[in-house]
Every structure is written in C-alpha cells, then in structure tokens.
Amino acid sequence: MVKIVRRDAFGGGGHHHHDGKSGARVPSLQYQLDESEVWRAHQSLDHYQHRGNFWNTGKDEELRRYIYTALIGIMQGCVAYFTNMLSAAFIDHKFESAYELLEEGHVVWPFLRFTLTQLGFAMIASACVWIEPIAAGSGIPEVKCYLNGIDLPNVGAPLTLVCKVLGVICSVSAGLPVGKEGPMVHSGAVVATTLTSGKTRNDRQVRDYVACGAASGVCTAFSAPIGGVLFSLEEGASYWGPSLTWRTFFCSMIAFTTLMCLNTIGSALGKVGYNKLFSFGNFVWVGQESAYSVYELFIFVALGCFGGLIGAIFNNTNERITHWRRKHINHSKKRRFLEVCALSLMVSCVTFMLPLCYTKCTPIPSDPKTEQEAELFTKLVSFRCRAGLEYNELATLYFAEPGVAIRQLFHLHRHAFSDTALILFFIPYICMAVVVYGIAVPSGLFVPSLLSGATLGRLVGNLANKLYPNLAFSNTYALIGAAAVLGGMARMTISLTVILLECTGNEEFVLPLMLTLMTARITGGFFNDDLYHIHIHLKKGVNFLESELKSNPRHHDLTAHEIMGENLVFMRPVENVGTVVDILQTTNIVVFPVMDTKDGNVLVGTISRNEMCVLLKQRAFGHPKKANMTGKASERIVHNFLEYDGKRFAPLVDWKTLEGSYPRYPSASEVRVSEHDRECLLDLRPYMNKAPISVQEEASVGRCYEIFRTLGLKLLPVVNRHNQVVGTITRADLASDALAQTMLARGSKKSN
After folding, report:
1. Which GO terms describe its cellular component (predicted)?
2. 345 CB-near residues (< 8 Å, 6+ apart)
3. CA neighbor of 171 nearest in space, from 81, 87, 77, 80
C-alpha cells in the first residue's frame, strides 16, 4: 500500500523520502527534456525573431557542436601524445640507469636503484588517486555509468583529468602490469566535459560530448578512429542516434589527425608520422602465401574458448580480491597508499629476480629479414648477457615497454622466445595483473590482457609448430591469443575486432579475429560478466541499467504497482513557499510529480528540485492576498509577470534564466526565506513539465524498465485508469537488487 505523504495545510510533502529499495545514493542525470510553458514560449519567440533569416538558432547551435567537437579531438590528441612521450621517456631512463650498473658487474645496486625508482613512480601515481579518488582504475566503468545516466561526483572535473594523466604516466613508468590505453577513454570524457563546461544547457548535450570524448580516447590510444566510434557505441553510450554517430566519427578523425601531426615532430616536415601511440606493426610471412590455413580456424576457435575461460577466471579472481580490498583497505586512504607501495615492491622483485635467475643467453640474429625486425632486434634486452650479441629472453619481456614487448611477440622469429621463457613470463605476469587491477593507481586492462594473451598464443603456436611444422608461424597465434584473452576479460566483439584490425592493418585477420572474439565472449559469458560491469556493480549506490532487463521469468509477473516506492511525496500546482522549502531541505528527491488535489490527485506534470531551487532563489513567488488564485482561467503572463484577474502577482522566471543555471543550480541549503516569505505562494504551472511520461499501475516491470531507460528518465509516475497518481518509480526501483527484494517480499506474503 502506497502512503501519500501530506502533513501541511497547503498540501506539501513530509520527511519521508523516496529512494527505492536499494537506497540510491548517486543522483541520476536527466536526458529527457521537459516541456513547460516557459520553454514553449521561449521556442516560439526564438522562431518568431528568426523567421525568414538564413542564419538561425539551429544553425548557430550546429556550428557550435562542430567547433566544440573539434576542440575535444584536438585536446585529446595532445593529451595522448603528451602521455605517450613522457611515459616512454621515463621508462627508458629507468632502465638505462639500471643497465649502467649491471654492465659494471653489480647486482645489488642495480636492483635497489630499479626498485626504488619504480616505487617512487608508484607513490606519485597513488598520490594522484589520494587527491582525486575517482582517478583510480581505467575510468571506463565510470564513463559507462555517466553515459548510462548516473551522475558520479567529479567524474568530469578538470582535477580528475590532471590526476588521471599524471597518474597513468607514473603507474606505467612504475613497471606495474597496467596500460595507459584504458585511462585514455576517461581522459577523453573529462576533456569533453572540461571544454564544454558552461557552454552546454542540459545533461543530454553533455552526454553526447562525453560519448565523443570517449571515442577520441580509444582512437588516440590505438590509432583506431573507426574502432573508437564502435567502442563508444558498443561499450559506452546507452543512448545512441545517427547524429551522434557522425559526431563521434568527426571527433575521432580530428583526434587522429592531431596525433599524426604531433608524431611528425622530429621527422621530415610534411611526412606523415606513423609512430603510433599503440601499433602492432606490419605482419610479414617469409616463405608463406598466407597467415593461416582454413583448418587452423578450428584451432583459433579453441584458443578463443581457452581465452574466454582465462578471462572468466581473471574476472572472478579480481572480483573476490576487490571485495576483500573494499572490506579491509579501501576505507582508508593511508592503507590504499601502503598497498600500492607493497605491490610495487613485489612487482619489482619479480620482474628483476626472475630474469636474473634465468641465465640463458640467446644470440641476437645477424640477418634481419625486414626493417621492422631489425628495429625490434635493437630493443632486445641483454641483462647480464654480452651486449649487442646476446639477449635475455625473460628480461626482454619484463623490461621492454609493453607495446614493444607485444610487437616482439608478434614479429620475431619462432625461436626468439623459448617455451620456458614464455611460461615464466605468462604465469607471474597475469597473476600480478589480477592483483594490481583495482589498486589506488590509474590503470588500464588492455595492455596486460594483450601482452599475456600474446604470450599464451605464442606458446600455443610454438607447440603447434613442433607437432605440425606446416602450420602458421607463431606470430599469428600470438595475435589470436591476445584477442582471445582480452575478449575473455572485456567481452567486446565488434569494436575490438576493428581496433585490432586497424592496429595490424591486415584484413586477412578479419575472420580469425571475429571467430576468436565471439567464442571468447560466449565462453566467458557462461561464467560471469565482463570486468567493467563487475566493477560497476561493486560500486555502492550505483544503479546501472543494462540495455535490457536480464531474463528472469519471475520478473515478468511483477507490475508497476509492486515495484513503485512506498511513500509518495508530491507538489500541487500552486504551493506554499514554506512547504516547498521544507520538502527540499528534508528530502533528496530530484523530481516531484505535480498533482491536482482538487481533482482527485490527477497527474498534471512534473517539476525538478533544481528548477524549484532556482525559482526560490529568484523569488518567483507572491503573497496570496495579491491575487485570487481560484482558477486557471484568471492566470496570464504580462511583461514577464504572472497576473491573476488583472493583478500583478509574481515575477516570471524566463527559460534563459532557468537554462543558464545549468549545471550549477543552487542547492536547497542555499535557499533562505523569511517568515513572511514562507506564507507566500509559488506557482509551478508555468515551469512544470506538462507532458510527463507515465505508466499504468498494471504495466509490467519490463515495460517500465524499457520506458525508463530508453527515454533517460529520472522519475516515472504510476497512475491508475483515472490518471490519478498512485506512486512513482525511480532508477533505484528498477535495479536488479531492488527487483530481487520485491520478489522476496511477494513470496513471503504468499507464504503467510
């Protein structure tokens, strides 16, 4: 039974608040635009003023979108270049200082210098998260939440961008098994919100810019503009349209152009710089006509299944570690910082001691078959072997920059890395990666997945070539293995296929990559969700709405009446100012239904908390003695004032004032009214949304879910056949935990 909360003489609300079964703590975004009288008046006036003109408001807004979208792409291209350049310089300096001591025959001093250098970088990265906690991790779950309609605090703040970029540079330089490609998505989103701050007028516009920023982030991370658009479509944006498609494409194009231009620095003027931020290089098969044979597709499918299984184990293990971390570490910034230091020391010991114990020295080939292979030979790490003549296989994998290590696994000849070296790298590396992902540093998932997967694929390729020498080279299996493990963890298909293809530049791999990624997704999906969704659901107070309600036969029996909130707090078309202030200051409701209590609680509109705070701040109210407000027929607008029966009642707040308050609306605590003001009346009729979306109380939960998510609502009123409000549904009521509690409550009632 729904309780309608009325405790005042004027028909206001009480102290009860509607926050759903699961207790929504994170506010939602409003993607559905309201239709109020002041909005309609503004639209009509604008159309009248620009009638017959070539240049109108629509074209002006279109030009602004082009400009801001281009600026987002340019800025993100600069951020990506800056991140890549500094991280590469720090990594080179770190290893050069250790190599100098190693060449002199020392062991302890190089180890201490190497360990302390990595610890220093890790401490800086963790300090960035100490300053801005939301900068931790890859940021992809946070961006997905924002695009889903969840307003996480500081997710798009400028300080977040600084901490994210500086932190990921240091975490990569610290030698942790993390990548900088994932955080590029978050940095692109923050660039979008920062550049458009104060220029946007509603959450929908910000959402579209964030989607463009996320696409440009993927584009600059992998030099994959098409893959960036598809990533934003497949993994990011919950609301999509044709106009957003070309805007994300335009933003990715500008970001890619900026990055390519910056890469020409230091090279011949005008020569296109293909020094990509992340590249797999050119695949060449000497003595073979193709990269693989048809019957090897079955091996690739099997490798995809294995990668999906590894991804499921990785995700499950990381989820358990994250649960433990939340219980014992995450409640204290000091503990999170100390955890980073401890793990940095552990990673340094493993990455230094294992190559030190691996005493095998492999001769460097003197006859590179391609220019690319010759360049990769120069990246081989000697590490206590004869410099320029021999290299340490394990040190090459651990000490090389991750992107270089991946290219070496993809392109060096089949005997470059022994099975023993591959095993000694794969097992410790993926174990360290599963522990490190989620600590208090900015970190990505792509590179650890690709590097460990490439190692696994190379190992499978070596074994396959020993059994059947006519099979494809090991580098083909390395690429398929990288796709399998990353697909098993992230469960991406379309976007990841295109990203990998753009990185390889070879269309021969279309079919193997499609088969592998699809198989990895299906296999991993049998056991758990992808790692991003796991971390989304681990966030407290975050109610993420999937594209469709998860299939549960019991949910189809639920109706809107059963899942709506227990208490109903609402507004009347004309409310007492004191009542409005009390409601706003004692509840956290973001949208209120407006009900005509004189007509049996009929729904006449909705009004947001933000709009009412602006109205109170603008003193858009009047004393009841100034006008007879008994009927709507007496109301009219004259010279920006509300008049009743020809008497001026209260100033009218126009749409530009309401719109201009976004996104920094005054809070309820900032509203100050005197005792005299509390007796005044606030007319909500010109400002309320007069075309609210509602559902019948017998509507299924599936229909409610579809309407709420598709339209991007904050509140969904539930009405009976007489259009009388009987309750409201919020995002929290549609969360999976809330629906499960409703099912339990229904079961207990039936048993009683």
Report:
1. membrane
2. 115, 119
3. 87
Cα–chain-centroid distance for residue 511? 29
Domain ranges of the chain: 3-43+550-751, 62-276, 280-542
Distance CA 187, CA 79 (A): 8
Q: How many CB atoms lie within 10 A of CB 517?
A: 28
| Eight-state DSSP code of residue 442 | B
Q: Does domain 280-542 have CATH number 1.10.3720.10?
A: no
Residue 417, phi then psi, degrees to nearest 5: -130, 125
Rounded to an integer, the average pLDDT of 334-350 is 96
Q: How far is CA 319 from CA 126, 257, 457, 721, 740, in A?
A: 21, 38, 25, 46, 21
CA distance readout (Å), 226 to 218, 231, 251, 330:
9, 9, 11, 37
> What is the assigned CATH class of domain 3-43+550-751?
alpha beta
Question: Three-state DSSP class for 282?
Answer: coil
CATH of range 62-276; options 1.10.260.40, 1.10.10.10, 2.60.40.10, 1.10.3080.10: 1.10.3080.10
Contact at 8 Å (CB) between 578 and 732? no
Total Cβ atoms within 10 A of residue 38: 21
Query: Which positions ≥6 away from 494 have C-beta within 8 Å?
Result: 230, 234
Do 62-276 and 280-542 fold alike per CATH? Answer: yes
- DSSP sequence for 663-706: S-PPPGGG----HHHHTSEEE-TTTSBSS---EETT-BHHHHHH
Segment 463-485 mean pLDDT: 87
Which of 480, 491, 479 is CA-nearest to residue 308?
491
Sign of the CA dihedral with 635 first, then 640, 646, and 648 last:
positive
The candidate with the shortest Cα–Cα distance to 278, out of 23, 498, 27, 80, is: 80
For 41-52, the three-class secondary structure string (H helix, E strand, C coil) is HHHHHHHHHCCC
Asked whether the beta carbons of 364 and 391 are under 8 A apart, the reply is: yes
Token code pair at residue 511: 């079919």
> How far, in Å, CA of 2 to CA of 337, rounded?
47
Task: Tell me the backbone φ, ψ of residue 591, rounded to 5 degrees.
Answer: -140, 135
Tokens of 162: 């600084």
Give the pTM.
0.89
Interatomic CA distance for residues 441 and 429, integer angstroms: 18
* Residues β-bridged to residue 568: 4
**How confident is the model over 187-209, as a mean pLDDT?**
90
Cα–Cα distance for residue pair 671/544, rounded to 1 Å: 32
Instruction: Please state, as a whole number, how many other Cβ atoms lie within 10 Å of the Cβ of residue 70.
Output: 18
Place of tokens 């709506």: 564
Six-digit token pair at 676? 């005299």
Residues 81 and 64: their CA atoms lie apart, in Å, by: 26
Question: Is residue 634 very low, low, confident or very high in pLDDT (cuts 50, 70, 90)?
Answer: very low
- For residues 147 and 369, the answer to whether their CB atoms sit within 8 Å is no
Q: How far apart are CA 223 and CA 236, in angstroms?
A: 18
Answer for the pair 149, 26: CB distance below 8 angstroms, yes or no.
Answer: no
For residue 515, pLDDT over 80 is answered with yes
CA 728, CA 2: separation in Å to the nearest integer? 10
CA 608 to chain centre: 26
Compute the distance between CA of residue 238 and CA of residue 696 in angstroms, rounded to an integer: 25
Detail the DSSP E strand segments found in 571-646.
Answer: 574-576, 591-596, 602-608, 635-638, 641-644
Residues 524-540 have pLDDT tens digits of 999 999 999 999 988 87
